[in-house]
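Q: What would this complex look like in 3D?
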Amino acid sequence: MSAPAEMGEAESIVASPAAGRLPFRGIKLGTISQTLGPLASLIILSLLIWSQQDVFMSSGNWLNIARQASFNAILGIGMTFVILTGGIDLSVGSMVAVSSVLGGLLIFNQGWSMWPVVLAMILAGGLCGLANGLIITLGRIPPFIVTLGTMQVFRGIALQLTNGQPIFDITKVEPNFDIWGTRNFAGIPSPVIITAVVFVIGFLILRYTRLGLYTYSIGGNEQATRFSGVNINRYKLSVYTLMGLAAGIAGVMLTSRLNSAQPSVASGAELDAIAAVVIGGTSLFGGEGTIVGTIIGALLMAVIRNGLTLMHVTAFYQQIVIGAVIILAVLVDRLRRGASS
Amino acid sequence: MQLSSPGAMMSDTFPSAPVLELRGISKRFPGVVALDDVAFDLRAGEVHVLVGENGAGKSTLVKILSGIYQPDAGEILLDGKPITLPDPHAAQQLGISTVHQELNLVPQLDVGRNMFLGREPLRGAGVIDWPALYRGASTQLAALGMSFDPHTQVRGLGVALQQMTEIAKALVAKARVLILDEPTAAITMEETDQLFRIVTALRDQGAAIIFISHHLDDATRIGDRVTVLRDGQLVATLPMASTTQRELIRLMVGRELTQQFPERPHEPGPVALKVTGLSRQGILHDISFDVRRGEILGIAGLVGAGRTEVARAIFGIDRIDRGQIEIHGRAARIDSPGEAIRLRMALLPEDRKQQGLVLPLSVADNIAMAAPDKLPSPPGLVPPVRRARAADRFIQALRIRTPSSRQRVVNLSGGNQQKVVLAKWLLTEADIFFFDEPTRGIDVGAKVEVYHLMNELLARGAAIVMISSELPEVLGMSDRILVMREGRIVSELDGRSATQESVMTLAAAAEEDVA
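A: Here is my prediction, written as structure tokens for the whole assembly.
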């Protein structure tokens, strides 16, 4: 077939009657500036806390902050994918619980060794995510409703599996299980290393793969993406499965950290993850945002908690501050956009 | 076509003092001067048409007058007194109402409630006097010559009736200055006639009306005076009776467009797409046609005749009940757009922003979207560098005016957006193109560019199916014309011998004539 494939470079296709005109109206600030806001808040807040508490700036404390942020950051990375497509996943906390409980049972009751258990925990999360994706795409039900339902279902499964009882002292049976949550490698806490790996994978997927391109475009305009021949369901399934895998990894990390598998663990984790994503500048309508922003969002939340704790502010006040910061972050973003348009 | 309205004479003979006057209005955005020292005046009892290419500054002017933007310099006078319009509410309070291109109605409410939204008649203490509201609505609608029930849900109304509702709403707000932004862009000729009757009646009652349009036919028909903007500057304000469409085009683009529909050598090749007996329950009935390489098949018809549905069905968006499709002589089953793309078909949809583009994404991402496998990269990967390189090629070849391939398409003008959609399909190496309303909402200069690009495709052996509501475009570009009515093809005409009248007669004929 002699296709009219591509227009040759030098070919003058049409004498442009309006050449030389100003080409567009209203330049928007680039994508870098999307993360500048949260980053600036992070820096300013850190300096503020530092001015009150010297110990805050110590490398030990920062490693502490990074470790505290990592659980939320991993969930946030998965959540960024979901939110970029214009979706939401409320079931992540319950998925973490399923993964955690499954790990405890496999170690205690089945006597599995560590690596297969870890793999099974991650895959369990992935399966939960896949289930979410299947119901959302095949049932054509809004993700909010589907995951509101599966949040209960997954939590129920986790509770039923252990009759509501926690499984303690995992390291008694599997002494090396603490490598995922408590140990340091080269002075860096393992959760931070795991988060870094997940971040790099997430970043590469978003930037270099079709899945990444379509994650943005589905959220930006699902119809136009479908009309471009993209199998929307396939990519949505992938995104919810990725979210599940991230929850599975977070489950491994948390189980190791707590040295126990608890069916009631990580309740409310979905809201922290969504908060990190939103503070990081990702639009809840989808199509715009970065996981760099999400990492900053998760760090910001950890810095606030850490800093306030250092300043002996009660956990109740911390909650008030975090809540205010979420609203403030979106407000600042709105004002910034308003100013540039 | 040059229809002068009686009003044009009137406002020449009885010039009244301006109701609204703009002096030295300037507005800058980062990187561009949208309006530069523009003067404009509007008198009671006139329809003042505002024309200009996309990006000329019409929308900015409208947004300043409706209180959405604040001018950087200049003053606005109402009845000779300087005013400020800090927000849309202030503009409405002063009697300046705007019917935007994107209508601002609440679809879940009925016509009456929409008309009185924010101005509900009260029985005191916040209790709404519903009977009074619906009486008022009926009266207002009747005054506009509209006979529909104010209890009708807005959701169920067509664009034209929604527009009427907006106009009625403006009258409820006691508008003295009515701004109509592209009111004829999405309505049929008949509906346009009705709109014009209403606009004329309002003018004769003393309303001052600003009318923005891309359609010079409409502009010359309804306008008493016309103001031409170009690149944010005032070019001229003229009585409509003393100018012509040709002169207006010249003023708009800055030079004469000698050939609006470029000539091309006519030598159709073998059949590229053949459709037989295509049917979809209640929508399409027994659609059969073919289109050859090197030829444009135009599809004309009224809005709702099923033209877009034909393209959607062939492209695998809508399921079909019956019918065969042959691509280059081979039978094809197409159940998804992905399959259509593999068969090298392309669809440039009528609603560019909703169906053709992902607005928040960059030019490069939009272009790469339909054919990531055509970028030189390992399977599954679409490295940004490759996207940008491919996009740069098309930016150059199609003369897409954008600062870079990283620019978000939402910031491009309509014509350039359409070129991005075309670039997307060129990257898929498609050779059968469906152009659905290819020049809707884009300016005169960009239109001609699109026509040239279509001819370029033909020269390279592509087959084009063009759906259009603009008759001059259908007649000027098509080799053959299918006329559709109520989901059926009622006639096939030769592109050279068809006339606007012959097409319209077939498209709009009454049901009994069909048998």
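A: To summarize the key features: The first helix of chain B runs from residue 6 to 13. The first strand of chain B starts at residue 18 and ends at 29.
Q: Very helpful, thank you.
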